[in-house]
């Protein structure tokens, strides 16, 4: 899988470099600050692609004594770095647009520049779709983030082509820096979103979609010995997940029997969970008399209270550190 991830990001790096050169050629042909803005953003694609190559290589290294959970966290550094670079590019584009408002420049060879920009946009569209699809298949947030950035580039380039076409046919050159300002706002927003995602990952912010997915898997394959699940915590390391939780089981189970139940949980979730590999750390809690009213074991030899109804597992009762009921 690591080789495929590196191959995918290397394709992104090479294509992004070629398209960046083409956009700068279009800028020198037209002297359009809006095209310059697009070209400057594409530089970030190249820089981010290079950093992504290293982060994917590092995240694929096996666990060691210093990194018992692996090296997958580096992918959050990768998208944070990319977000910071995008944000910086947005600031530069905004500064350049203000300069052009103050000192306008005459535009040249607009038709040729538009054709060249259109070709780079189509190529970027194909690249972005390829990266997003590959990121989903490989469970790589670095590749997915890179693909989403490329798609943002596609949207901004499409809007840019429309605006430059209007300028070309109307002669309203003031639209050139105005469009550049709009592009800078879009780019700044995207940079902020990537940095926000990076910080949330590095701070181990809970991904509720992952929690809901795991709860749904456990609920659909629930067995009587799993009386309740609580104190669940999820951490992401690249495309790997570490989950620790408490599972309440009948107190009279032998150590071997309890271990077998824990193994069932780990095997089940890894089989059904498509987002990546899951490592479990499960603390086994013995049942107490207050568990009897929702315990599903029909022939429990130590039941002290009648069964009153099954408790549905949700975020509200799986995440807190307390037995249900």
UniProtKB/TrEMBL annotation:
It comes from the Bacteria. Keywords: Membrane, Transmembrane, Transmembrane helix, Transport. Residues 210-287 form the Cation efflux protein cytoplasmic domain. The chain crosses the membrane at residues 7-30, 42-60, 81-102, 114-132, 153-172. Its main location: membrane. One of its GO terms (molecular function) is cadmium ion transmembrane transporter activity. One of its GO terms (cellular component) is plasma membrane. Residues 9-203 form the Cation efflux protein transmembrane domain. It is found in: Membrane. One of its GO terms (biological process) is intracellular zinc ion homeostasis. It is a multi-pass membrane protein. NCBIfam families: CDF (TIGR01297). Belongs to the cation diffusion facilitator (CDF) transporter (TC 2.A.4) family. This is Cation diffusion facilitator family transporter.
């Amino acid at each position: 899988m690591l080789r495929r991830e590196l191959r995918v990001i290397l394709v992104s790096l090479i294509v992004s470099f070629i398209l960046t050169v083409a956009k700068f050629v279009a800028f020198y042909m037209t002297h359009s600050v809006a095209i310059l803005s697009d070209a400057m953003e594409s530089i970030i694609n190249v820089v981010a692609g290079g950093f992504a190559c290293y982060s994917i290589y590092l995240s694929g290294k096996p666990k060691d004594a210093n990194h018992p959970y692996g090296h997958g966290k580096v992918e959050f550094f990768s998208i944070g770095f990319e977000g910071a670079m995008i944000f910086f590019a947005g600031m530069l584009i905004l500064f350049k647009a203000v300069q052009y408002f103050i000192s306008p420049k005459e535009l040249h060879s607009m038709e040729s520049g538009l054709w060249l920009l259109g070709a780079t946009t189509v190529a970027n569209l194909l690249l972005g779709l390829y990266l997003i699809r590959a990121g989903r298949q490989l469970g790589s947030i670095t590749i997915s983030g890179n693909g989403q950035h490329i798609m943002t580039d596609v949207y901004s380039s499409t809007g840019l082509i429309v605006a430059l076409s209007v300028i070309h046919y109307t002669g309203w050159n003031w639209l050139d820096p105005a469009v550049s300002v709009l592009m800078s706002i879009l780019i700044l927003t995207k940079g902020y979103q990537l940095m926000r995602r990076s910080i949330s990952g590095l701070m181990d912010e809970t991904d509720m979609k992952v929690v809901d997915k795991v709860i749904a898997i456990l609920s659909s394959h629930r067995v009587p010995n799993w009386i309740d699940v609580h104190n669940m915590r999820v951490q992401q390391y690249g495309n790997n997940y570490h989950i620790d939780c408490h599972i309440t089981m009948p107190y009279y189970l032998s150590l071997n029997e309890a271990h077998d139940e824990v193994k069932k949980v780990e095997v089940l979730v890894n089989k059904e969970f498509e987002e990546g590999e899951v490592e479990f750390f499960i603390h086994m809690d013995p049942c107490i008399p207050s568990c009897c009213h929702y315990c599903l074991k029909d022939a429990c030899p130590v039941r002290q209270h009648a069964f009153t109804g099954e408790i549905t597992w949700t975020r509200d009762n799986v995440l807190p550190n307390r037995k249900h009921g």
